[in-house]
């Protein structure tokens, strides 16, 4: 499964799940939803968890990413 995911998407299955969850969260944030609500809707424990995940996956802070 890991090899197929890597070949198809460029990520292993765990990283792919993280990226897809982050994309859902960013779509909601771009629609104007508050960060705390975005975090809850996307399945993050809290806004800080969302912010750490954004920084880990993109290398850019959440506020700058959406600016």
How would you describe this protein?
- With 67 residues, the chain is mainly α.
- It has a single domain (2-65), classed as Arc Repressor Mutant, subunit A (Orthogonal Bundle), CATH 1.10.10.
- It has helices at residues 2-9, 13-30, 35-42, 47-58, 62-65.
- α2 (13-30) packs antiparallel against α3.
- The longest helix has 18 residues, at 13-30.
- The radius of gyration is 13 Å and the shape is elongated.
- InterPro entries: AraC_XylS_family_regulators, HTH_AraC, HTH_AraC-typ_CS.
- Keywords: DNA-binding, Transcription, Transcription regulation.
Compact summary:
The protein is mainly α and 67 residues long. The chain contains five helices and no strands.
**How far is the first residue's CA from the last residue's CA?**
36 Å
Low-confidence stretches: none
Largest sheet: none
Q: CATH topology, what is it called?
A: Arc Repressor Mutant, subunit A
The secondary structure category is mainly alpha
Q: What general form does the structure show? A: elongated
What share of residues is helical? over 70%
CATH class: Mainly Alpha
Give the helices and strands, then pairings.
Layout: H1 2-9, H2 13-30, H3 35-42, H4 47-58, H5 62-65
Helix pairs in contact: 2-3, 2-4
Keywords: DNA-binding, Transcription, Transcription regulation
Domain HTH araC/xylS-type: 1-67
Pfam families: HTH_18
List its traits.
single chain; 67 residues; mainly alpha; Arc Repressor Mutant, subunit A; 5 helices; transcription
